[in-house]
Amino acid sequence: MAAQPAKQQVFRQGLRAVAPMLPGVIPFGMTAGIAALEAGLDPLTGFGMSLIIFAGAAQLVVAQLIADGALPVIVVLTALIINLRMVMYSASIAPYLGHLPVHWKMPLAYLLTDQAYALSITHFQHGQMAGGPRHWFYLGAALPLWVIWLLATVLGVWLGSAVPPSWQVGFALPLVFLVLLVPVIRDRPSTVAAIAGGGIALAAHDAPYHLGLTIGAVTGVVSGVSAELLLHRRGSAE
Amino acid sequence: MSTGVVWALICIIGLGTFLLRLSGIQLLGGRTLPDAVMRTLRYVPAAVIAAIVVPAIVNGGPEPGFTLENTRLLAGVIAAGVAWSTRSVLATLGTGMGSLWLLEWLL
Lengths: 238, 107
Hints:
Chain A has helices spanning 7-18, 22-38, 43-52, 56-67, 72-82, 85-97, 102-110, 114-126, 134-159, 172-184, 188-203, 212-233. Chain A has 238 residues and is an all-alpha fold. Chain A folds into 2 domains: 7-168, no CATH class; 185-238, no CATH class. Chain B is mainly α. Chain B folds into 2 domains: 1-33; 43-107, no CATH class. Helix content of chain B is 79%, strand content 0%. Chain B has helices at residues 3-28, 35-42, 44-59, 71-86, 89-106. In chain B, α4 runs antiparallel to α5 (89-106). The longest helix of chain B has 26 residues, at 3-28. Chain B starts with a helix and ends with a helix. Chains A and B meet through α2, α3, α4, α5 and α6 of A and α1, α2, α3, α4 and α5 of B.
């Protein structure tokens, strides 16, 4: 037997990697809980969103769309557009987790988040670990995010009614996403994608059926791909 | 929207999101996606997150639009600077909410 790190040891490596990210999850999760209450949903429904959807950005936008009285089909479409980035994460991490049996892949997929993906892919690509129980690192990074997310949502739906509207806690949503936006703007095409996405979503604010976000997102992706092709043709791609 | 419709929405979005998360891991196994698909997907996070953030900052508050009375816009610009330089959720939340409250109190 080659000396492979024990799974407990690898799991603890994942825990150590995710630890600095956990404090930021608390206000974000609380905001998700409060947003559900502000949309007129009861606390149990707010918690159900965190447990069943388990995706902060989508949950906050869904709560807002429900509050605005959007059509159900638009709510589903917008939520899935927001979560489309999970396909990229899932495809990019597949070489490291794809060989596992399905009873592993399903829970690991459920736990896939921006943070768990970012930590794991960095560790798998640059870490020393070839083969071995790599999925235990992923689990160590992903599981605490899930636990803290649910606890923070409970705190949010519990305290939510006690928070005065003048605090404008809804403003926490764009603040948290500002931080998530920084690392995904890596080069000129992704800068173009972000500017087009944000600008068009803003311009399309009064679009019918609350489609502004979707129109902005699709325009942003198309602009990013076009910018990459143009830069590549000019021979100045990064 | 009735409670039943809301729960149905939550379940449909939850199932859809789970399938999006499972897609690559389950269907690809150890293989990778074609280059053109992966290239398109690479721009999804930047485009989607910007499409969420910009309207929420500019139009989210009681004074929407590009005016000096829009405290969320001013606080959002300050917070964007902090997010860019620190990449810290806590520092960005602290500065953003702090400057919003300060501006509300001043103006």
